[in-house]
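hey so i finally got around to running the thing on that chain from the lab meeting. sorry it took forever, my laptop kept dying and i had to restart like 3 times. anyway pasting the input first so we r on the same page abt which one it is
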Amino acid sequence: MVKQISEFRKTSYNIDPIFLKRWSPRSFQEKEVPEDVLMSLFEAARWAPSASNEQPWRFVVARTKEEREKFFPFIMEVNRLWCEKAPVLAVILSKQANSKNEFNRTHAFDTGAAWGYLALEAANKGLITHAMGGFYKDKAREILSVPEEYDIHAVVAIGYQGNKEDLPEKFHEREKPSDRHEVKDFIFAGSFGKKADK
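ok and heres what got predicted. didnt touch it at all, straight out
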């Protein structure tokens, strides 16, 4: 495992510790996630905010060995080196049209919120998540029979954290929580570019 989170992450303002606890390890134990625990992650995603309450998010979930192996061909090799041990894989999709059959400009934004809720509930339940952009979208669409009206955003590995020593050596140095930019670096006062700090 890694050292205490506080050695890698420090806040400038007081927030709930769950936000620091959530990070993206690559080492997974080959340990099954109980169904009720797994479904609680998607229950959390269910309550994310969405424009006009459209709830555009969808998830294709692989829980069995057979289902996970179906996902492997569209995951890039660099990610397969570590994610094949994860007991659960999920593909995150969003419906691009709203209930009036018009383009929903916030479909990706809202689905990102649902993913964030899922990831935080995973951390709350003692699980880890790692979202991957390194996959072949067209191949995923074909293999999973995803209709064209749905956008495909990411593949997520879900499970229990393993030891970094169980990873290929090339990943050892990166197996630790990452830091973030300071708040003052990404907010502006009144107009773009005007620093918000006083």
